[in-house]
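User: Hi! I'm working on a homework problem where we have to compare a predicted structure to a textbook description. Could you give me the structure for the chain below?
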Amino acid sequence: MSESVSDIAVFMACADGGRLSLAARTLGITPAVASAALKRLEAQLGVRLILRTTRSLRLSAEGERYLPHARAALDALRAGRLALSRDAEALNGLVRVTAPADFGRNRLAGWLADFAARHPGVRFQITLDDAIADFFAAPVDLALRYGALGDSSLIAVPLAQLERVACAAPDYIERHGAPQHPQELAGHDTLCYMRHYRPVDRWSFLRGEQTCEVGVTPRWTFNDAEMVRRWAVRGRGIAYRIWADIVEDVAAGRLQRVLPEWRGEATPLSLVYTERRLSPALRALIDFLLERRVELANCSPDRSA
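Assistant: Happy to help. Predicted structure tokens:
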């Protein structure tokens, strides 16, 4: 195989981040080096993988076909490195992790338990908080965070694009009926998450080429996203939640999707850290979490239907 692993890593970072500058910053290289890596990989493969515009990148049809194979190859290499590190020396030390409360409880906790079982010498300090971690004021080694990263001094590695959906308890739907169009949400009790003391009350939907943004007036507003989920399960109203956080509730019949023909907003989830020279335990944890991308990619409303 003539393709360079580092060139494939640049392609992956561009596919996940959508911008050459973001991919370069994630990998700790200059945009010029990243651009040269892309051109080199495309020349070796003999196809155009990424279509470039002045502001963004998007995958070509060939790039879409190549992406899962590239991801599988890099994940296999990470798994091999992790296996060698387990054989060479036992990992130990403290790893301090912060994550959104809902994702931390519903997904991350199980992953960390699996990692801890493999590495009994590693200790954890977990903070579940929806606020953005201040790496320079708080003791944090790794953060999982939704949304775009504002601080360019931090390293952000894309983990997944998670889709939001409107959902409600069957009891609520039975009592109030199901909206047939996003605009009808204005006539329903809604549950909102509060960020920086302001409710997230603009909900975006997409159906084919049609987009719709709706402003709701929440009956209940919480600064804890997990409380939004719990109140929805209790039949208090319609919530706009990340599918990965409610998929088990839907499978168990506690919640059901509202407006199923409309897609909700996609929110990026990233691993964020500061140091490029990572401790062996933190490096192994990051590799372990990146292997979970396949699980998150399969956790979408369409695949779970």
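For your comparison, note the following. The mean pLDDT is 85. The first strand starts at residue 50 and ends at 52. Good luck with the assignment!
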